[in-house]
Amino acid sequence: MQISISASQAAMIALWVAIVEGRALGYSTLMLRFTPMMTGLVVGIVMHNIPQAMIVTAAIQLIYMGLIAPGGTLPSEPAVAASIAVPVAILAKLTPSAAVAIAVPIGLLGSYLYSFRFLINTFVLRLTDKYAEELNDRGLTLSIIILPIIISLILYFPVIFITLYKGTPLIATLIKTVTAGKLFHVLTVVGGGLPALGIALTLVVIGKRKFVVFFLLSYFMAVILKSLNVNTVTYAILGGIIAYLYVIFTSKETDSQQI
After folding, report:
1. In this predicted model, what pLDDT tens digit does every residue of 68-99 receive, in sequence order?
2. Domain of life here (predicted)?
3. 92 burial class (0-12, 13-18, 19+ CB within 10 angstroms)?
4. CA 167 – CA 146 distance, rounded (Å)
5. How much is the CA Rg of the chain, to the nearest whole Å?
């Protein structure tokens, strides 16, 4: 079976990544950059395989749950990682664990590309200073919004397009040839452990001792209710109810202490 991705598919995914990395849709695109879920959905739509794309992206999402972006920079770019790893996983029919191991180095390379974009934008900042001194509204719009978006499109679109159109089929074909080998086994083992790292980072960033009990509750609920095939929506509703009850009881306790 031939493993390939069409030029139009590569172009649509590359355009999406360029838009997200350039924040062309406003502040909301900042969140789209930080999470690979929407990029995975776009890849699934473009490649006509949304279920598999979302299964793979869900595993990739776990390793980025605890990442923070000081100064707007990430140690790894989730959108770039998902845009390459998910097509490879779909073409080569990889397990989510193996796809995660592929996403990590790709995301790391994407962070270097993002830093290079920052370097280019330093030259645009000179225009911003000039237009600010002149109180030029149109000039500020050009230098703050339009030019950075254009730079992102020029930088990301060809890189992602070439990687997808030329590199992705090669990577997928290579992986399919080593499926039974030690390399594939190593990728799977490493990829299987990385999501745990993402969860651990999340607990470190937002975790408090008094909230650990809720984490344990959710884990054991998932284990106990596994045989019932409870879906994620049901768990989300249960979690919302428990959170609401917690707020009610804690607020009443606070009010009684104040009285």
Report:
1. 555 555 667 888 889 998 998 888 887 787 77
2. Bacteria
3. buried
4. 30
5. 22
